[in-house]
């Protein structure tokens, strides 16, 4: 017997609105998937939220309110909003979640626990309004609290990166005549907007999920850092039976997650490769993964290839932005004249890891932009040093709570 999947509502034209049920062979455990609006191409695509139904009703992630998605993904990045997105109601994604729950005979007030996989805007920003209609308590890893619990957490994340972004050589997202504040406040009244929520039961590391102080049988938390410092996954299912991993953005399919620390991310992939008994992986964006080891292998290979390409591009001195905008570095075209945070960060984390093993060194700065050049050794030797760092990792063994 395996986990059975049933589609309850097809995907709408805008790309979200899908509702699916996964029935476990034990007859007691079910997972529901509801996809809520988040832009694709410019963003990661609809956010899949999951409801775990066993001894308790647990909601994993909530998605992003549509008005905030318009601000973060388009206005803050200085991108034109397509008409079909502009036309969406400000609470479109919220309605998708509520209608999805209606369809499965549940309401927000039935939720016992909300688990936030990580503190990125597309995963938790809707929580503020959702929590007004439920008495559910909230869990998230303690390392995500700077984003989740601080009213200015998302702005802090955005603004704290600006200095680093300028050093990469990337153009600013706003015009010279505009203040940062004017730029960020377009479309949103951030002074009166509730962005933060209180985390009632912080997660410190691996172990059973607790709801109201009680350990829930058949839901295990795993700390899977690297996409963000406090990303968590939930393993659903009982010992000896079928198991699913709800993984947030740690593994995605078909897109590849952006690491915020590539070394830590590769260590997490190593940890995931050792999981023996996961039959189904349910990511927060895109499609389900049925072969965990194959997906982990493909993501490791992807980063190896990108490290090699980064290293080769830096055979002559290059800034991070030069690398990110080299033709063929990404599948999609990155316009050198336009701010693109994720493209810049992706090149940056690869260059950081190469620098960590002396594969790259900073050769000069010009107009505040830093330039790097490779050490001209064989790439396989450099990659061997990276693999040594990835596998020489005491963290997983020590960080048991
Ligand atoms: Zn995400």
Automatic annotation (TrEMBL):
Identify the Pfam families for this entry: Lactamase_B
The highest taxon in the source lineage is: Bacteria
Ranges for domain Metallo-beta-lactamase come to 46-285
Q: What SMART domains does its record include?
A: Lactamase_B
Q: What is this protein called?
A: MBL fold metallo-hydrolase
Question: Can you name the source organism?
Answer: Desulfomonile tiedjei
Q: Upper taxonomic classification of the species?
A: Bacteria, Pseudomonadati, Thermodesulfobacteriota, Desulfomonilia, Desulfomonilales
């Amino acid at each position: 017997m395996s986990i059975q999947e049933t589609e309850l509502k097809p995907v709408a034209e805008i790309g979200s609105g899908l509702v699916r049920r996964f029935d476990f062979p034990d007859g007691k455990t079910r997972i529901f998937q509801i996809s809520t609006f988040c832009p694709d191409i410019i963003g990661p695509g609809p956010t899949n939220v999951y409801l775990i139904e066993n001894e308790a009703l647990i909601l994993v992630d909530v998605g992003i309110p549509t008005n905030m998605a318009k601000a973060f993904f388009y206005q803050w990045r200085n991108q034109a909003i397509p008409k079909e997105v502009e036309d969406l109601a400000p609470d479109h994604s919220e309605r998708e979640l509520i209608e999805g729950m209606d369809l499965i005979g549940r309401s927000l007030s039935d939720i016992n626990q909300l688990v936030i996989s990580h503190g990125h805007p597309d995963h938790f920003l809707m929580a503020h309004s959702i929590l007004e209609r439920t008495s559910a308590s909230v869990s998230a890893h303690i390392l995500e609290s700077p984003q989740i619990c601080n009213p200015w957490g998302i702005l802090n994340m955005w603004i704290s990166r600006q200095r680093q972004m300028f050093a990469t050589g990337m153009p600013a997202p706003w015009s010279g005549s505009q203040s940062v504040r004017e730029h960020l406040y377009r479309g949103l009244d951030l002074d009166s907007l509730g962005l933060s929520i209180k985390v009632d039961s912080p997660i410190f590391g691996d172990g059973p999920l607790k709801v109201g102080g009680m350990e829930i049988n058949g839901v295990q938390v795993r700390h899977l850092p690297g996409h963000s410092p406090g990303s968590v996954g939930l393993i659903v299912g009982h010992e000896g039976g079928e198991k699913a991993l709800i993984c947030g953005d740690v593994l995605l399919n078909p897109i590849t997650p952006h690491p915020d620390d590539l070394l830590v991310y590769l260590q997490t992939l190593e940890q995931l490769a050792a999981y023996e008994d996961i039959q189904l992986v349910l990511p927060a964006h895109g499609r389900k993964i049925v072969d965990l080891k194959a997906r982990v292998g493909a993501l490791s290979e992807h980063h190896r290839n990108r490290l090699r390409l980064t290293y080769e591009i830096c055979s002559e001195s290059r800034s991070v932005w030069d690398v990110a905008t080299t033709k063929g570095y990404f599948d999609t075209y990155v316009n050198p004249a336009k701010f693109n945070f994720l493209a810049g960060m992706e090149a940056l984390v690869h260059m950081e890891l190469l620098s960590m093993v002396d594969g790259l060194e900073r050769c000069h700065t010009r107009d505040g932009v830093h330039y790097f050049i490779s050490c001209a050794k064989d790439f396989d030797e450099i990659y061997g040093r990276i693999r040594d760092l990835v596998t020489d990792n005491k963290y997983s063994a020590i960080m048991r709570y």
